[in-house]
Amino acid sequence: MSRERERIDNIYCGMCTLSVFRSLLEDEVIAPLMELMEEQAEHGKFNVNKYSQFAAQLYKHEANLSRYILSRVLEDENFYICGTASGKVFDEVIVTAVQNELYALQELSQVTPELLRYGYYRICPLPEWRTEFIDFAAEYRKRLENIGCCGYGKFASSVMFVYRDGELLPVKNPDKQRLSELYGYERERGEVVANTIALVEGKPARNVLLYGDAGTGKSSTVKAVVNEFARRGLRLIELGKEQLRDIPLIIDSISNNPLKFIIFIDDLTFTSGEDCFGSLKAALEGSVSAKSENALIYATSNRRHLVRESFSDRNGDDIHRSDTMQETLSLSARFGLRVNFQRPDKKDYIAIASQLARLYGVEMSDEELALRAEQFAVQGNGRSPRTAKQFLISTGINFKEPSDFQ
C-alpha cells in the first residue's frame, strides 16, 4: 500500500469513529468527500466524477476546506456542547472522545487535491481547493469559553430567526439596520437600548412595547438593537400574531440556551373576539410555561391599547362585558416598559432628513432640502423618519444604500 493510500485510509477510519460529531458525516460537503475517500481506501481507485462533485459542493460555500470544516465543527449542535453550555460536567471518557474526534476532523481538513489525486494521470484540469493548518482543539476550547456570546448550532451562524412549521429558521436576508443609521428619538431609543443591555448582561429587564405613529422607526429600532448586540450573544425571533399560541413552546426550546433572545412581534393589533392574546398575556405575566430568564418580548404597535375597538363591541351580550373589555384593553399595561414614538414636528423632521441625506450621500443645500422635504411630507403621509427616507430616495441624487457605509 502506498503512503498516500495509507494516509487516506487512516483519515477515513478516523472519521468513521465519530460519535459526538457524528451528524457531520451527513454534511453536504463532508459526505461526498467521505464517499470519495472510501472508494480510494478500499479499492485504490480515483473517481474523477466524485472528486468533482465534492469540489462543487465545497465551492458553494468557499474554496478553503480547512475553514469550512472548522465552521461546521463550531456550529454543530451536539449533546456535548449543549450540555457544557448548561453547566453539565461530562465523564472523562466522553471528554477524551471529543478530543480524539476533533483531531480526526482536523486531519480531514488537511486533505489536499494532490493527496486525493495520487497516481492519477491528468488529461484535463481538475478542481482545486485550499487548506491550512488550524488547531481544532484550541478553536473548540475558545468556542466553549465564549459560548454565551457565540452560541452553537444555527444560533452561531445567524442572528435573526422566524418560526415556521414548529421550527426556528434563520432569516436568509436579515435586516442590517444599525443604530448609527437611525436619527431622532434619542430618548425613546435610549430606553430600549438600556433595557436590552440589562438583558444581555443578565440583569433584570422588562418586556417592551414600542407604540405610536407609523413610520417613526419602532421596528427599525428593535432590529438595529439586535444587530448592535449580536456579538454579545443577542438573537431575535420574529413571530406573527397567529403564532402567539406557540410562545410557550418557543421559550421552552431556548430556555437552556446560553444566548439571550428577543421574541419580536411587529405591528401587533387585536380585533374584538380574537383570543390568541391569551398566550401573550401568559408570557407577559410570567406563567410557568411561558417564562425564561434569557428571553424577553418586544412588540410594536400603532395603537397603545393593542385592541381595535368599535362601538358595537361595547354593546355585546357578555354579562361581564366591562370586565372582558378591561382585560383586553389593559394588555399593553402588562409590558414592563412602554415607549411612545410620536410623529416629529417640522424642526425635528427636517433635522432627520438632513442627517439621512449626509448618511446616504445626497448633495443638496440645507434650504432646498428643508423646502422639498416638507413639501413631500405634506403631499404624502405626513412627517416621519420613513417619509424622510422616501423623500431622499425620490430625489435620485447620488443615493447610496446604507450597506455602502458598513
Question: What is shown here, in short?
Answer:
It is built from 18 helices and nine strands. The protein is an alpha/beta fold.
Explain what the structure shows.
- The chain has 406 residues and is an alpha/beta fold.
- It contains 18 helices and nine strands.
- It has helices spanning 3-16, 30-43, 48-59, 65-75, 79-85, 92-108, 113-116, 136-145, 147-150, 154-157, 186-200, 218-228, 247-254, 277-285, 321-329, 346-360, 366-379, 385-395; strands at residues 160-164, 167-170, 208-212, 234-239, 260-265, 270-271, 295-301, 307-308, 337-341.
- The strands form two sheets. Strands 2-1-4-5-7-3-9 form a seven-stranded mixed beta sheet. Strands 6-8 form a two-stranded parallel ribbon.
- Strand 4 (234-239), helix 13 (247-254) and strand 5 (260-265) form a beta-alpha-beta unit.
- The two termini are 54 Å apart.
- The relative contact order is 0.09.
- The mean pLDDT is 87.
